[in-house]
Amino acid sequence: MSSLAFALETHPGLKRPKNEDAVGHALTPWGGVFVVADGMGGHRTGEVAARLAVETILDHLKGKEPSPKALLQAFEEANARIYQEAQRPENRGMGTTATCLLLDLPYALIAHVGDSRAYLLRKGELTLLTEDHSWVAERVRQGLLSPEEAKTHRWRNVITNALGSFPQARVDLMGLKLEPGDVLLLCSDGLSGVLEDRTLGEVLKSFPPEEAARRLVALANEWGGPDNISAIVVRVPEELPQGGRPYALPLEAAKGAPVRLKLGEEPEELPTQVLEPKRPRVRLNWRDALLVLLWVVVVAYILLGYFKRP
């Protein structure tokens, strides 16, 4: 899409001997696919895991019409591929974060695993779209750590979810309707862990994508560059196509608010609006099932005795 402005930058930083981040993109008739990954597990395996994630996700999505289900399947395929590689003794501990932006203009779908991030700059206000899957982030959400304490905690680099760590992927999905001029930022924690959100927002507001991405990486290095640094900046066109999609988004997302997507129970489509509270499914364990069976037997015995009376 010619009017879609974007830029990708990645740098090893100043303290790491090798760059274990990976970035990639592919333009599509609907907009494009953008991925950032931050590998872990050692200098060689981390690099391989990040590259495999980016390649697999892009290959899976390039030839398919965009949908939440297709995005989830791309992450599941990447997870399976990396997990298989991680079973080799020389690759123990291999894994990677991954954050993917799938543009289906005028909509954006985002899938996320780990502590890489996706941000939205809209009308001068920067919003974090993703939640970090890390030990300190979970403690912050529980109220056990403050955001300031989390930044300097000795376990701030401990990831609780990564592609390749488990046989099945645990993926966060989000969706929203874009507005003209929106700017999206995907980045590894080598950027978000060094620069404050206020700085990220100021750079994104002040410069076009190519210059913004370059300046963000340079600023992270000026502040010490303790980790690999990656940034993808995408500016949405001023004129956006209109019309519906074959999949449905929750009403809030269709109106422009970022909304988490749940595909576990409804993999084919998502509700367009909430008409009534969804009744929770009741799942019985074997103890509950035994109690129900005993109750039925007792009731049947009582009724049988009642009908046998003269």
UniProtKB/TrEMBL annotation:
Transmembrane segments annotated in the record for this chain: 289-307
Pfam families according to UniProt: PP2C_2
Stretches assigned to the PPM-type phosphatase domain: 5-236
CDD domains, alphabetized: PP2Cc (cd00143)
Keyword field: Membrane, Transmembrane, Transmembrane helix
Highest taxon of source: Bacteria
Cross-referenced SMART domains: PP2C_SIG, PP2Cc
Coiled-coil features, chain-numbered ranges: none
One of the record's GO molecular function terms: protein serine/threonine phosphatase activity
Protein's recorded name: Serine/threonine protein phosphatase
Organism of origin: Thermus scotoductus
